Amino acid sequence: MAKSKVMVPLKDLESVESLVTLACQLSVGMDAELIALHVAEVPLPTPLDAEGVLDHPGKEILASAKKVAERFSRSILTKLLRARAAGEAIAGEARDQGVELIVMGHHKPHPHPLGELLLGSTVQYVAHHAPCRVVIEIPPPRR
Fold it and tell me: Would residue 6 count as lying in a domain?
């Protein structure tokens, strides 16, 4: 039987600490492998295989994820993907890898009553199309 997998998609450096920490804690309880994923969204006119600065932020984010996992004595596989839409790429990668749990974050862009009800398009897509359970971390508002 294959080992369980927990995937943590990471969008920015600000979310790495909390999301990887949560993913590490959950993966220990599940005795699961960890996968950190960054999806570099590529604008439509740009070829998906174009060389350039698109991958640099992702490499920095994934290196930070490794450091956080090391503090928990956990190994973490890192993967950088290029795609037109992050949600589709995350759900597809979860399906391809046989992921059992996705741990992802959502940041409220601004305090608006309607914003409390709506999640971002990436989170919504993953929540509705992932082949596994999805845990969404919503940090407390900044004061």
Answer: no
Q: Which range of residues forms the domain containing residue 105?
A: 11-75+86-137
80 within some domain: no
Number of domains the chain is built from: 1
Query: Is 36 part of a structural domain of the chain?
Result: yes
CA geometry: angle 109, 80, 106, nearest 5 deg? 20
CATH number, domain containing residue 22: 3.40.50.620
Query: Which tokens in the block code for residue 87?
Result: 């949600």
- Does residue 78 contact residue 60 with C-beta atoms inside 8 Å? no
Pseudo-torsion of CA 66, 70, 141, 12, nearest 10°? -10
Mean pLDDT, 10 residues at a time, over the chain (143 residues)?
90 95 94 96 80 79 98 96 94 98 80 53 92 91 69
Angle at which helices 121-129 and 86-97 pack, to 10 degrees?
30
Q: Which residues contact 28 (CB under 8 A, 6 or more apart)?
A: 72, 74
The Cα–Cα gap between 54 and 42 comes to 8
The pTM of this model reads 0.87
